[in-house]
Amino acid sequence: MDDFAVTIKEIEQREKSNSHRIDKIEQKQDEISKKTEQIPVIRQTVEFMNEKLDKLESLVTDIKEKPAKRWEEIVTRTLCAVFGGVIAYVFAKLGL
Predict the structure, then answer these.
(1) What is the rounded distance in angstroms from the CA atom of residue 55 to the CA atom of residue 46?
(2) What CA–CA distances, in Å, run from 71 to 2, 60, 66, 68, 80?
(3) 3-class SS at 95?
(4) pLDDT tens across 33-43, in order?
(5) In terms of pTM, does the model score above 0.70?
(6) Torsion angle of alpha carbons 81, 85, 87, 91, nearest 10°?
């Protein structure tokens, strides 16, 4: 009978230990569930940020290209004026 009582006592201790472990697992599972629920919100936020970054990248590119476009316009107008002057000079010398 003593063996039977010892066995029951061991089973009860194991049951308490297992109950405690199960409680911890349930707690961790709740934490995981809460974090999983947050994933769609995080995903939406990241997509929104990516859209904003794309717009900023486009604006930065436009700003970087503006001085180059101005310089090209100045060079084009200067060359046109110089060539126009040379052609006018040539025509003037030719008497046209």
Answers:
(1) 14
(2) 101, 18, 9, 5, 14
(3) coil
(4) 999 999 999 99
(5) no
(6) 150
